[in-house]
Amino acid sequence: MKSAQGIIAFSIFLILNGCASITPYKMEVLRPATITIPPQIKSVVIINNATPKVDSVEVHIVAGSKFVRYSPEVVDSFGTFAINECQRELARRQFFDTVFIDTTKRHSSFIAESLKTQKQLMEICQLNHTDAAIILESYDYQPFLEYTQLGENAYTFNQKVEGKAVWTLYSLDADSILSRYVQTDSLFWDNYAFSLTYPVDGIPSLTESFNQIASRLGFFYCDFIAPYWDRVNRFYHSNGSSYFGMATEQVKLNKWDEASKIWFFIYKNGSKLDKAKAAHNIALAKEVLGDFKSAASWAYESMNLYEKLHGVFNVENKEREKLYYIDISKRYFDSKKLSKQIGGE
């Protein structure tokens, strides 16, 4: 019995010790846009060319075997929310020198004819002194509401709103459409309800929900045409031989190059496990310093070293290192795309 208790206690010690050896490190990485915009495009105007919905959306609320019909008000602000958020986010990223929202008054034939002839797109770009136009061609939205009965007058309520937007990018210089992007997204809410009435406390109304999904579509369309910063969680090994502690002190001082030298010494002279840890740490240092090719190479070395080790703890290490290698390899290839979009990081 004592022997079994001793084994359990030792196992717990190893688990805690293993977790303590991983030090999280948060950083922001620059991701490329989906498409590469020609460098001569330095200013854009955003045009809301979508036709507003003219009829309300009749919602069928599912509540077990019951169906409750609810017709919210017509939401004619969807397009406005989408283009406003797109303008704000593009202005914040400063990828373009200027970002305007078109405020010109157009005759009714614009909706039917503009994307066919492109004449008015050219006129709007010239009027706003921009090199390109982002056009919100159309949008759609659909709500889904459901009650699940828990007991008498007690329910869980789920609300989902799906949104769709179609965007076009027009270049004045080329007088042509550069891209057309069909975007979809959704938002979810849930809460408890004590009747089948709508709306439910703590859940935004459908009008608010539609405007939220519209803003979300406008925000994330920016990723399609402009690079963006992405917050990622990294880690480094801080325990092992005493040299790991020395390297950690250098990291705290943001001296990654000095820390890397200590980790390289461990890699050359340490145990098999310490070699794998050190290789990963060097990979992270290379990433922080902007050498993504070397980072991917060291991450691959760490992954291979873990493959040669056995034990329950190394299963997690192998998987963690594999995921890091995949991401840092992607970042290496992304850096080439970024160099074309903004001249590198």
Rg, please? 27 Å
Count of alpha/pi helices: 10
Query: Mean pLDDT across all residues, rounded?
Result: 86
* Main beta-sheet strand count, sense and barrel state: 7 strands, mixed
Please write the CATH class name of the largest domain.
Alpha Beta
Helical residues, percent:
40-55%
CATH topology tier name of the largest domain = Double Stranded RNA Binding Domain
Overall geometry: flat
Q: Would you tell me the structural class of the helices and strands?
A: alpha/beta
User: Strand percentage, roughly?
Assistant: 25-35%
**N-to-C SSE series?**
HEEEEHEHHEEEHEHHHHH
Secondary structure tally: strands:
9
Write the CATH architecture name of the largest domain: 2-Layer Sandwich
What does this protein structure show overall?
The chain is of the alpha/beta class and 345 residues long. It has 2 domains: 43-229, Double Stranded RNA Binding Domain; 235-342, Alpha Horseshoe (Serine Threonine Protein Phosphatase 5, Tetratricopeptide repeat), CATH 1.25.40. 47% of the residues lie in helices and 28% in strands. It has 10 helices and 9 strands. The strands form 2 sheets. Strands 2, 3, 4, 5, 6, 7 and 8 form a 7-stranded mixed beta sheet that branches. A two-stranded antiparallel ribbon has the order 1-9. A hairpin with a 2-residue loop joins strand 6 and strand 7 (154-171). Helix 6 (242-252) runs antiparallel to helix 7, helix 7 runs antiparallel to helix 8 (272-288) and helix 9 runs antiparallel to helix 10. The longest helix is centred in the last third of the chain and has 31 residues, at 312-342. It is flat and about 70 Å long. The N and C termini lie far apart (60 Å).
